[in-house]
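Please check this protein record:
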Amino acid sequence: MKKTTLKRWAKFAWKIVYGIFAIIGLLATILYVTLRVYVNKTGEHLDIGISPNVPLDFRNKVEKLRTSGSFANDTIQIAMTSVQDSARAREIREYFQLDTLYDVNASTWEKTLAVAKFVATNIPHANQNVQPKFRNAIGLWEYTKTTEPAFNCRLHSIMMYELLKSIDIEARFITCMPNDENDYDCHVVNHVWLPELGKWAMIDSDMDGNYATAPDGTPLSLPEIRQRYIADEPVCYHPKFDEKGSEKISSHHAYMAKNSYWYSCWETLHYDQEPSAGKDVGRYIHLVPSGFKPFEVDSIDVITTDSAKFWAPPIVE
């Protein structure tokens, strides 16, 4: 009897010890997953630890967007306008022979991609050493043939704006800004109005070119990209305008998340918009989250929190 009782007690004690270790193992697993892995709605794991595939600061960039103030209606009156010049448009079209880049029945987005591919293919990215005298489509093209073969994102966007405008596609070049005044790196891209979809879409001809879509292929605008980051919804980037695109979290996600805190654009856009010395080019509008004080702002600039006005459909004159 005594040996039997001892065996029973030993077996009982072993079960208790085994159960304790099993619970500890389960808790350790849960803790590891909680601390090490963030899973977004695309099913991709963002590892907090060292990972060659995932930017370590992506979540920090998105968290800054999440904790920023909201955009809200205000009483500031702005009218985001684009001015057409038919003679100048014809000059640009003929100079670049733009009608050879796309089919006559192509959609607005198809034409936009064709123009963007043309610019990205012919003009690489660089921070130019010599500033071009003329910041317009023809002047910038000739600059790459006579002075330097490449230039930065702002000049890419200005050139793209004029090319698109010349074929009656409404666009804006938008400066995308970080929230850190000590971060001197911003990014400038084009926003194109797609009348077939009744919405804006981001297009970038710089650094080999890219655009962003939802998983179903719908082109995304800058505010949509920002909101999808905040809501943890997938954004598919199409580097080098690859039609398949990718939801994989890449360095470009972190770059755009950083530079999606606030935005700036001229209220009225026309050919030869910059440089502005000696001519009246109107006001520069800054769209900022509530409670945020923008930096590098001139006294004549306008600051608004009203995203509906800033992202309104184009007014054409």
Summary: The mean pLDDT is 86. The chain has two domains: 2-39, 59-316. The radius of gyration is 26 Å.
